[in-house]
Amino acid sequence: MKKVHFLLAVTLLIITIGASGCLSSPKDKDVLFQISMFSVLSEGVYDGDVTFEGLKRHGDFGIGTFNGLDGEMVAVASEFYQIKADGKAYSVEGSMKTPFAVVTFFEPDKAVSLDKVLDYEQLSQYLDSMLPTRNIFYAIRVEGAFSYIKARSVPAQSKPYPPLAEALKGQTTFELHDVTGTLVGFWCPTYVEGINVPGYHFHFITSDRKAGGHLLDCQIESGKIEIDYTSEFFMMLLRGEKFYELNLEAR
Length: 251
Ligand SMILES: [Zn+2]
Prior knowledge:
Elements: H1 2-29, E1 31-35, H2 38-42, E2 50-51, H3 52-55, E3 61-65, E4 72-76, E5 79-83, E6 89-91, E7 97-98, E8 101-104, E9 110-114, E10 118-119, H4 120-130, E11 137-153, H5 164-167, E12 172-188, E13 199-206, E14 212-230, E15 232-236, H6 241-244
Parallel strand pairs: 1-15
Antiparallel strand pairs: 1-8, 2-7, 3-4, 3-8, 4-5, 5-6, 9-14, 10-14, 11-12, 11-14, 12-13, 13-14
Bound molecules: zinc ion.
């Protein structure tokens, strides 16, 4: 009799663990999770309070920046990197914080191999032809051989922070030739203007994870395109007086 009770208890425990696992994962996986909004970053609010340790609970793939606008963030296959103004990739400490980031759990709904040479504009047009609608979000991963990459990063800003357009005047650009790597990014609908960046926004990282940046231009020779259709959007606003005092109504 005791043995039966023990088995029953073990079985119930397994069912409970199994059920909670099923309930939580699909919900999280279809969400585009965003910290702050692009218009706030544009106004020069460069300090957030969410750590990368916290951000990782909401995605294993994405782009963004760091407190103080200290470089470009790229996350791929659960690894988070900081591309500093020297163009090199550094691993991100969990205690570091972000004022703007967009992440999701990447699960492609569509994948195609690419066997033709495309420049950035042609790649954008090719991606356009793959999107079933222009009314949802897409996470896009393009892994391949690139004959040309032009990317940029920005140096950390000092207070009082300048607006983004001013800070970008101090950006550094890098050109890479004949590298393999991954474009990590999103396509956002036009209606998110101000909230995010409508259209494509990619960050690049080399396959040796040593260099990258915010993508300005590229030429891809061959590769694989993967697209994750994303219909849920969650935005976490910043806390603190810099954001609270910002007048977004005049825009
Ligand atoms: Zn960027």
